[in-house]
Amino acid sequence: MIIRTIIFNILFLLIFANIISAEEENILRIIQNTEDKFRLINDYEVKMSISVSIPAFRMPKKKYHVFFKQPNKIKIKSKGFGVLPRTGMFTSPKGNFDNLTNIEINHHAENLEENSIMLVGNLIVDSLSIDMPNDYAKLTFKPTVDVVVDTSMWVITGVTTKIDTIKIMEIHNKYGLVNNKYFLPIESKVEYFVKDARFTKWIKKDIGVLMGNKQNVKGDMVKGNITVSYKDYKVNQGISDLLFNK
Fold first, then answer.
1. What does the DSSP 8-state code read for residue 127?
2. Which of 59, 96, 198, 202 has its CA 20 to 30 A from that of 128?
3. β-bridge partners, 60
4. Are 176 and 229 in contact (CB under 8 A)?
5. E-assigned strand segments in the chain
6. DSSP at 218
7. In b/e form, how buried is each residue of 136-161, taking b as 16+ CB within 10 angstroms?
């Protein structure tokens, strides 16, 4: 009887270990496929326009001409004040996933589009530009991130940052086919639901950079929207490295 119990426990542990191993391999495959799709594009240029809707803050649309070259070269041209915040926008999928720990597949995610899968991970707080008053505050501040990947295109279509069950920020990306070959974003919508003072400070700083250092976002921003539109892509045209040195 004892031997039978021991054998049963060993078999259970082996099966459980194989399930975990298969899950981890699947997660790595999803991340790598998304990264490989991103790396198919050696360089591109695109015209972008950004509109911001924030309580007590008005700003006309900002237009940018953006040049990107692998692995991480960026050149941004704009008229007047304002530069694009670079965090996340031009980072590779793997680079963004590297900011998460304990990544799992959410097998119970609801309202997903066909061919979509959701990965969930804990956000590394050091990846945010947030000043923590002490180590205890840092330890208790534990945002989680839901990342939705469309496996038919291998692109990230949604990102939701939460603390417990409360949404802090939500991003939706819409893609189009460029040159009959490359799936690239044609619109990104960012919605903030800010109730945490630390996130409020971080988001205000990011929007201040977006719209220019002379802009001042006042008050306690509870909800805000940013819409980014992309058009006139030119992909893999062989952008010279000299452009990024100017």
1. G
2. 59
3. none
4. no
5. 43-53, 62-69, 73-78, 100-105, 116-123, 143-150, 155-163, 166-178, 182-193, 223-235
6. -
7. eeeeebebbbbbbbbeeebbbbbbbb
